[in-house]
Amino acid sequence: MTEQTGRNERRLTIARAMAEAVAQEMRIDPRVFLMGEDIATLGGVFGNTRGLVEEFGPERVRDTPISETAFIGAAVGAAADGMRPVVELMFVDFFGVCMDAIYNLMAKNIYFSGGGIKVPMVLMTSTGGGYSDAGQHSQCLYATFAHLPGMKVVAPSNAYDAKGLMTAALRDDSPVVYMFHKGLQGMGWLGTEPGATVDVPETSYTLPFGQAAVVREGRDVTIVGLAMGVHNALKAADDLARRGVSAEVIDLRTLVPLDRDTIRRSVAKTGRLIVVDEDYHSFGVSGEIIASVVEHDLRGLKAPPQRVAYPDVPIPFSRPMEQFCLPNPAKIVQAFDRMAQA
Amino acid sequence: MTDIIIPIDLWAEDREAVVTAWLARDGAEVREGDLLAEIMVEKVQHEIRAPATGRLTILRQADDIVRKGDAIGRIG
Is the dihedral of CA A291, A292, A295, A300 positive or negative? Predict the structure, then answer.
């Protein structure tokens, strides 16, 4: 994942990687512009638009009122009219007030027009909890967006992927929902995950959608995750390795399109599957991943697949209660133990 | 040897800060002016840049609590 730069490495947080990708694209494409709450003067509450208004000015980096329906709706129109807008829905939890603009307009206008118009826009939105921000500021809702046809959905786990996926999103002619986990941003008050801050090439590059990454190879069990789940999976793999269990870890990177082949290939090798998902347990990503494997081929499975997901309850404010609910490495190891007993 | 000191005028109040990210690896060769670390005070992030050119030694890790005037690393 590293590229030789000829001098010392250049690590970026995901927040910086996102801002760099957007800035580089804005320099070469005058159609790219941003709208959102606190994205200009403040640089984004999650740091992912820092420096943009200083370089590109308030015409292209627009602070909006608290009016998601208006500015996301406006972006759909601007995209249809030839611009390439980027909008930020500050917390994905706020989707309730603007979902008509998102899934009836943004997601469907290409289809409704028979492909006659394009909707090249990026909706970036923060996900995830772990820092006691309670039930309206801590959800992931990956499956909610991945379920509805018409939107590509990406969720990076590290800064290298974050930059490449953002550049790809900006160049895509379809709407892309870019879901970034707050705990991976490198903003201390949201939690710290050093594994997300990695070497990032300064030059612009894209990462193809629909290609999962095998971030650790193993023989005995496949652990599939996205965003924060990848880091929990890697820590669980370390714990399992100390017990002589070899775990393979897959980072989905994009949910739509979903790289089912990489998952199936891995499970065919290991015979065991654990899915880690900070989104709700039922009707979600974890069920879709497991179904994608078992509807394809049951024969290679040595044990029933397991999921480590968020319980089907509103997210608690209380730190002990929230931490009790969140996926973590210990729960992944326990899931493996359940399979080993099967 | 040059210590990487948190400037005493980086923020006004007498508050603790936290190292949120190192943007260079321990032992890396860095150049004067390179962005090395981010530290946060009350949800506001500040940048720490290299005061000299040389090999970086990290003294205070991510998540560590630090104060103005502390040395968070060394360049030698």
Answer: negative
